[in-house]
Design brief:
Length: 298
């Protein structure tokens, strides 16, 4: 199954199969079945079989499983139970270093071999959730593995601000540095753009959600983690190309290709200078629009 792009990924508790069934019926690009924060300690082990059943039941859906962290007593058991050949992706919390990425990869290879699954089938999304992880993000994102594993990274602001001893605000200025560093490191590493932290200030405040999502988009994020279905559509709007942007991108590509045929590579369109970087940006917009159309019929 093709991975992305992901504008939205909706969290749902791994011990609530009824909520998983509801989540997969939403328009979210992917569903994250959570075995970490959303599941009590006493429920973690017994919830694994439920999660595995739901992965198999919804094989046509992009399912991500957030397992417990590498240093938890549940990590190895989570891997052994939830890894299947049709699992879309594994989200690993509290990744702190390139060494963590290597260790995760080694454990995944072992489980894939034991289950007769082709190595590299399961991609990973490391969660960046601390000052140390933000500082190490370039090494994390560029860690070379065989097979290749990292689809993208995701930002977790709740644990990050806890680690820093600060509070999340509506203005979001306290998140500007980690967001910027994560986005730049992802681009430099040549992986997909990152996923932004969930908006948790007020689940009913859609305008604040839109502002927060737009901040992330402007910094280079491809989408946002969601904790409620009502966050999906606003985030889709923010992280999808607007109709006018698509039309303009089509026009840019058309006139530039015509100019190229006339041996020109620098032209003006509607008073704006058009050269190769502008055209490449237009082509990316059209590629994303086509992916959205083919995946969701939007």
């Amino acid at each position: 199954m093709e991975l992305g792009p992901l504008r939205t990924a909706l969290f749902v508790p791994g011990n609530r199969p009824d909520r998983v069934d509801k989540a997969v019926k939403t328009s979210a690009d992917a569903v994250i079945i959570d075995l970490e924060d959303a599941v009590a300690l006493t429920e973690k082990e017994v919830s694994r079989s439920t999660v595995r059943d739901k992965i198999l039941e919804h094989a046509d859906r992009k399912i991500i499983v957030r397992i417990n962290s590498l240093d938890s007593p549940f990590f190895h058991g989570d891997l052994a139970e939830v890894i299947t050949g049709n699992l879309f992706c594994l989200m690993v919390p509290k990744v702190e270093s390139a060494a963590h990425i290597r260790e995760i990869n080694e454990n995944l290879i072992k489980v894939e071999n034991e289950k007769g699954i082709v190595q590299g089938t399961v991609s990973i999304i490391p969660l960046i959730e601390s000052a140390g992880a933000v500082q190490n993000i370039h090494r994390i994102a560029t860690e070379k593995m065989e097979p290749s594993r990292i689809y993208c990274v995701a930002f977790g602001a709740a644990d990050y601000t806890l680690d820093m001893g600060i509070e999340i605000t509506r203005e979001g200025t306290e998140l500007s540095y980690p967001r910027s560093r994560i986005a730049v490191a992802s681009r430099a590493a040549g992986i997909e753009p990152p996923l932004d932290t969930p908006f948790m200030m007020d689940l009913k405040d859609m305008e604040a959600l839109k502002v927060d999502a737009d901040r992330a988009k402007q910094l280079g994020f491809q989408g946002k983690l969601c904790i409620h279905p009502n966050q999906i559509e606003p985030c889709h709007t923010i992280f999808s190309p607007a109709k006018e942007d698509i039309l303009y991108a089509e026009k840019v590509v058309q006139v530039f290709e015509e100019a190229e045929r006339k041996r020109s590579a620098a032209i003006q369109l509607d008073g704006k200078f058009i050269d190769y970087p502008v055209v490449e940006h237009a082509r990316r917009i059209l590629k994303m629009a086509e992916h959205i159309r083919s995946s969701h019929g939007e």
